[in-house]
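Thread title: Can someone regenerate the structure for this chain?

I was given the following input by a collaborator and told the matching structure tokens would be attached. They weren't. Posting the sequence so someone can regenerate them.
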Amino acid sequence: MKTNSRIIRINDEIKKELSEIIRSEIKDPRLGSLVSVLKVDTTTDLKYCKVYVSVFGDDETVKNSMKVLDGAKGFIRSLLANRINLRNTPELIFKYDDSLVYGMHISKILNTLDITEEESEAGEDE
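Best answer:
Regenerated them for you:
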């Protein structure tokens, strides 16, 4: 997909504002304390915006947090419209991104491997 500098700037601004809105404006106790906006992908016509979020916690926390975000789409969109001056405020589509959890899992596995100094040097020589 071709991206231009305008869409990149809009994505960055939406990401920044959504992070602030989720952190400070949504007061639902079901929302996990560690919800991060990882990436924002807005269509060129500004009709839709996919928001990739990461939620730190168990499966129940993730499910509840995604329900809260989906339920608050209209509220979040209206706050976004007040903060960002765009002709069209895009419709928000929240997607769960588990890449951080997967990365932590891989890191944990790598830390449990018992590799000695000699084995790691032997691998570099090959």
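The mean pLDDT is 86.
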